Structures are given as C-alpha cells and as structure tokens.
Amino acid sequence: MELNYIEHIGIAVKDLESAIKFYENKLGLKCYSVEEVLDQKVKTAFFKIGQTKLELLESTSPDGPIGRFIEKRGEGVHHIAFAVDNLEKQLEKAENDEILLIDKTPRKGAEGLDIAFLHPKSTLGVLTELCEKKT
Ligand code: ZN
C-alpha cells in the first residue's frame, strides 16, 4: 500500500464538551470544527497539529461503535488514519495482501473525506482508517 501521512488520530471520549476543554486549556490546541456523523452515531471535534489532526469521538448512542468501544476498553486511542491517493486502489491492494477490510468500498466520513476501515484483526490490533480528500 502507499500511505502519504498520518491524516488524523481518532480518540474515543465519554464527554466531548469536557474533552474539548482539556485539549484547549491544558494542551493549548484549538478546536476548529464540531460535526455529528449520523451513521456512525458519533459527535466529533477536530484539532489540527501540523498537517495531522486529532479527532475526538463521543458516542451519541450506547450501541454505536464508539459507545461499544468505550464500554469494552474505556476512553483512549481508537484508530489511526492515513491519507492516501486513490482509496479504491489501496483497498484492492490491501485485500490482495490478505488484510481484512471493514469497508470494501469507500464511504463518507467527517470533513467530506472518503474513508474506509481495515480490520484490527489483520493490522496488529490497530483499527486503521484510510482517507482520501476528494476535491
Ligand atoms: Zn477517523
């Protein structure tokens, strides 16, 4: 596969409001966008650091993916996202290399990016997201 850079790191939090305050007041970063992604049942907040972002994720429902993650493992790093060109092609390469795909075809994520997840079972326990900015 060809990965360009770390686009963002996804961090699961219980309370987005207080997490934003922590990142702003203690870490000195500035939240530039809050967005709800309905089909993922999450509210997200974005921070930029260099060309990489932090994506804080709060579940809007206990049965959403972030809700289940926090119940099992608590708050913390949820996924790492790499920027790629030609997402379809990267997914094809991943599949040829016997990496399990959660998303066989790209779907819409936050910030208008096309995204797809690789299964942590085949990526050494790290939920891995690929994203492509379509202009
Ligand atoms: Zn993400």
Tell me the layout of helices and strands.
Elements (H helix, E strand, L loop, with lengths): L4 E9 L2 H11 L4 E7 L4 E8 L2 E8 L5 H9 L2 E8 L3 H10 L10 E2 L5 E5 L9 E5 L3
Parallel strand pairs: 1-4, 5-8
Antiparallel strand pairs: 1-5, 2-3, 3-4, 6-7, 7-8
The structure holds zinc ion (ZN).
The site of zinc ion (ZN) has 6 residues, from β1 and β5.
Please name the defining characteristics of this protein.
39% strand, 3 helices, 135 residues, alpha+beta
Number of strands: 8
Calculate Rg over CA atoms: 15 Å
In this entry the ligands are: zinc ion
CATH level-two architecture: Roll
- Average residue-wise pLDDT: 95
Largest sheet, spatial ordering of strands: 2-3-4-1-5-8-7-6
- The amount of beta strand, in percent, is 35-45%
CATH superfamily annotation: 2,3-Dihydroxybiphenyl 1,2-Dioxygenase, domain 1
Task: Summarize the amount of helix as a percent range.
Answer: 10-25%
Biggest sheet record: 8 strands, mixed
Report the total helices. 3
CATH class category label: Alpha Beta
Annotated CATH topology: 2,3-Dihydroxybiphenyl 1,2-Dioxygenase, domain 1
Low-confidence stretches: none
SSE string, helices as H and strands as E: EHEEEHEHEEE
Q: What does the overall shape look like?
A: globular
N-C termini distance: 22 Å
How many structural domains in the coordinates?
1
| Secondary-structure class | alpha+beta
Question: Could you please describe the fold and organization of this structure?
Answer:
This protein is of the alpha+beta class. The protein has one domain (5-132): 2,3-Dihydroxybiphenyl 1,2-Dioxygenase, domain 1, CATH 3.10.180. Helices cover 22% and strands 39% of the residues. It has helices spanning 16-26, 65-73, 87-96, and strands spanning 5-13, 31-37, 42-49, 52-59, 76-83, 107-108, 114-118, 128-132. Strand 3 and strand 4 form a beta hairpin. Bound molecules: zinc ion (ZN).
